[in-house]
Amino acid sequence: MPVEPIKPRRLYQEVADQLSRLIAGGEFKPGSRLPSERDLAQSLQVSRPTIREAMIALEIAGAIEIRTGSGVFVRDPAQSAAEADIGPGPFELMEARIHIEGEAAAIAAERLTDLDRTALEKALHEMERLAERQQSIEEADREFHQIIGRATRNSAMAAAVDQLWAFRARMPMWGKLHELIGEIKKHRDWNDDLSAVTDHRAIIEAFDTGDPQKARAAMQAHLRRVSDVLMTASELDLIQLNDKAAPAARE
Amino acid sequence: MPVEPIKPRRLYQEVADQLSRLIAGGEFKPGSRLPSERDLAQSLQVSRPTIREAMIALEIAGAIEIRTGSGVFVRDPAQSAAEADIGPGPFELMEARIHIEGEAAAIAAERLTDLDRTALEKALHEMERLAERQQSIEEADREFHQIIGRATRNSAMAAAVDQLWAFRARMPMWGKLHELIGEIKKHRDWNDDLSAVTDHRAIIEAFDTGDPQKARAAMQAHLRRVSDVLMTASELDLIQLNDKAAPAARE
DNA sequence: TGTCAAAAATTGGCCTGACCACTTGACCAC
DNA sequence: GTGGTCAAGTGGTCAGGCCAATTTTTGACA
Questions:
Q1: Please, are residues A86 and A204 in contact by the beta-carbon 8 Å criterion?
Q2: Strand D: which bases are under 7 Å from protein Cβ?
Q3: What is the ipTM of this complex?
Q4: N or C, where is chain B less crowded by C-beta within 10 Å?
Q5: B125 and B20 in one domain?
Q6: What residues in A contact B249, CB-CB < 8 Å?
């Protein structure tokens, strides 16, 4: 039973939490104005400086916006997202993955442990199982790649790989990759073996050589193939992509 | 000419920034106690509630810990990193930068605009100016590298570069790189020209060729040199690094 | 001389009341 | 319709006060 220091709860935190709950509960809608500091201080029976402290915490947390002379306004979550940029388009993401995950694979090639290999094999088997059932391999796919990020034994590299997958998780389109491949085969005489399982097997085999160059090449070949799938699906109008999703602009 | 809303700068933010800079600059060591609220209010010629607001912001940011009745203490970045388990060590960061920023430079080499080049030159001049005054080039350095991230015209790559710099910003040690170089020269007959300005100039010249390989090589040479500085400083006990900061473990 | 409890001093936490800067809406002149 | 002025309301900051928590000092005692 670990003993931890007792940290008395600051009053401003109580106020901030209550206001946060009221906002989350819909009492104060996004874009609306909160009651004035003076009114809140009276309603909550605390001093105005305490309200101000709570407001600062909420503004830092992104929940509100304080406008001098006007009032305090609830931030619109959609507005926050729009301001924060919706993230990279699919082709941007693929390009970045080719470069960054290629490097991660190269680093990992010399640092994989037996545990890493076991985990990769497990993820691959999961992909095989799901593919046989015509189910999305998305989760197992992600696991496979994040194992590689961790296998670099470099938390900055792992974080970079994780971030790429976080971007990817925002686009539901990726979960349909398997279906897309099936659709493409209906339209074109596709020679390449598009099996994700084959690609991932090749990556594992490259790791078995311990050669960073081979690992990088296997990873990049895999990711370029996925990018090609995306390009072909776009050309066949199997998926709708917005402007940002177009291949990265060349000056 | 886009018109943007003017956001007046809150006094508590000025105070928080100044204290943050003092902490980063080593004026207040990790674990040490800041002057009392009353003393700070008098020293900075602001009211005590304003100091309190600044303290709240700094505590939320993780820079300090407020202990009722005792005082306000600077959090140990290593302790913070250990608690949050989110911070790569310096060598991890450098390794990741060599790989990721090398790739970013290669991509950017074919996509730089004239505006990008102008911005890079400007950042370089700022570095020159600061270096002449023996001042930290940290901000201009960061700007230089983030311009390159944006010059990839790939927001996933830019985000990856930004994340590396966010990690870097958590370690005040980097602001003292210039001093470290000076110290190293007192201890060793160092043959390499350690001028950051020279390295960055070489990167710009590599970009002028438009050759991705050359750009990658110039960026990686620069970052490897920085990593060497770090290694040497560590060997000379000029900086104290915790276990995680050691060169990436090899299995 | 060392230990321990109590007192004093210091520090953060919160409050009250005041004044100033900024914003908004109403109203008026041109 | 536009610009200017004014009043009311809002946030921003200040000064001073008192209380709770912590640390330091002091005095008593073995």
A1: no
A2: 9-17, 20-23
A3: 0.54
A4: N
A5: no
A6: 111, 153
